[in-house]
Amino acid sequence: MAGVRAEVLARQLTDLARSGEGDLRSLVGEFRRSEVLVPVADGAVLSVAIGPVRWLFAFTGMETLDRFAAQRPEKVDEWLPVFGARLLDQVIPAIDGPVGIAVDAGSEAPMVLPPVQGIVPDAVAVDTPAADTTAVDTATADGGAA
């Protein structure tokens, strides 16, 4: 079962959905501290690719997960309790390509955590500027002899 922190996260998501106002950084922080439920189907973490991004699913409670699973074509036969920080910092970087997380998908208060800086590690964020690979010859750049 998801932890107490996940209940706090679920309340914050519900408040955000109702009011349209909230502190998104606080929500990401709460997700990181929360133990969420990750559905498993056919021995693999359930995910879906939409365009170039693969989305993992995470749920703040069994009721939300069960409703989601009932709507899926594949049989969700188990779930894993995982802290949000582990999903963001360890699981996502281990998967090829951009990966985000859909929290409480299909509920009245869903949230997506896209693969961008400030949410996932910079090394796997889609909005990380490309490194400047232009080499500069320091011997000639400052007017010195080559």
Rg calculated over all Cα atoms: 20 Å
**Secondary-structure element string:** HHEEEEHEHEEH
How many E strands? 7
Q: Looking across the biggest beta sheet, what order are the strands in?
A: 3-4-6-7
Largest sheet: 4 strands, mixed
* Portion in beta strands: 15-25%
Question: What structural class do helix, strand and pairing data support?
Answer: alpha+beta
* Percent range of helical residues: 25-40%
Distance between the termini: 67 Å
- Please, what is the average pLDDT? 84
Unreliable stretches: 131-146
Shape: globular
The number of helical elements comes to: 5
Protein name: SseB family protein
Domain SseB protein N-terminal: 9-115
Pfam families: SseB
Organism: Streptomyces monticola
Put the structure in a nutshell.
InterPro entries: SseB_N. This protein has 146 residues and is an alpha+beta fold. Helix content is 33%, strand content 24%.
Structure description:
- This protein has 146 residues and is an alpha+beta fold.
- The chain has one domain.
- The chain has 5 helices and 7 strands, in the order ααββββαβαββα.
- The strands form 2 sheets. It has a 4-stranded mixed β-sheet with strand order 3-4-6-7, with no helix packed on it.
- A hairpin with a 2-residue loop joins strand 3 and strand 4.
- Helix 1 packs antiparallel against helix 2 and helix 2 crosses helix 4.
- The longest helix is centred in the first third of the chain and has 16 residues.
- The radius of gyration is 20 Å and the shape is globular.
- It starts with a helix and ends in a 5-residue tail after the last helix.
- The C terminus is likely disordered.
